[in-house]
Amino acid sequence: MSENSFISIRNGTIASVIAGAILLVVPVLRGSAVSFLSWAWSGVAWCWKKLIASYSLPGWAWLLMFIFALIGLINIYLAIQGDTEEPEFKSYVEDFMHGAKWRWSWVGNKISNVWCFCPTCDATLVYDDSSCRNFRSNVSRTDFICENCSNRVVASIRGGDKDYATGAVKREIDRRIRTGEYKMQ
Ligand SMILES: [Zn+2]
Q1: Residue 114 has pLDDT above 90, yes or no
Q2: 15: how many CB neighbours lie within 10 A of its CB?
Q3: How confident is the model at residue 83, as a pLDDT?
Q4: Rounded to an integer, what distance in angstroms lies between the CA atom of residue 30 and that of residue 92?
Q5: Ligand 1 centroid, distance to 63 Cα (angstroms)
Q6: CB 165 within 8 A of CB 142
């Protein structure tokens, strides 16, 4: 027997042994794989059944839960709305006082930028409180003048200078809010 044919017989034998081993193992592996998969699947199926059994509810129970959830959501919505809703008086930002139209804005709960405008032409009025610094004058007052209406004195607030006059207007705004009078305008 030549060396070459010996090698080919040896290779053939080794190949046959390996092939035989593989053929022997494959059905075993396949069997294990199938049994593992079927076991895993039965586990999943069991879990699913349990899940359905534990949480499946009749229609009326679902409806009840839906209603409770809706009530909860509405409550949360109202709570948020209640916190963010502005008080009603915050929409009160102009009124007639002392013959002029006064406008202001709200910063928090405080009146800010209060000033007066001409009721005829809506021009911004200019003030004259020189009487407060005139020692010969026995009346201190602040006049509010419309330059657009031939320098007509539109409003006159007695008692003090410009700051006093705007303070008096703020106090009047507060009074009208307290009494609810502002809602009737
Ligand atoms: Zn005017």
Answers
A1: yes
A2: 10
A3: 63
A4: 84
A5: 65
A6: yes
Above 80 in pLDDT, residue 155? yes
Cα 145 to ligand 1 centre (Å): 8
Cα-to-centroid distance, 184 and ligand 1 (Å): 26
Residues 6+ apart with CB under 8 A from 161: 129, 132, 140, 142
Residue 125 alpha carbon to ligand 1 centre in Å: 8
- Per 3-state DSSP, the chain is made up of helix, strand and coil in percentages (nearest 5) of 60, 20, 20
Q: What is the DSSP letter of 87?
A: P
Measured CA to CA, the distance from residue 85 to residue 110 in angstroms comes to 17
Confidence band, pLDDT 50/70/90 cuts, at residue 147:
very high
What residues flank ion ligand 1 with Cβ within 5 A? Answer: 118, 120-121, 123, 146, 148-149
Of the candidates 46, 116, 89, 50, the one whose C-alpha atom is nearest the C-alpha of residue 180 is 89
69-81 per-position pLDDT tens digit? 999 898 888 877 7
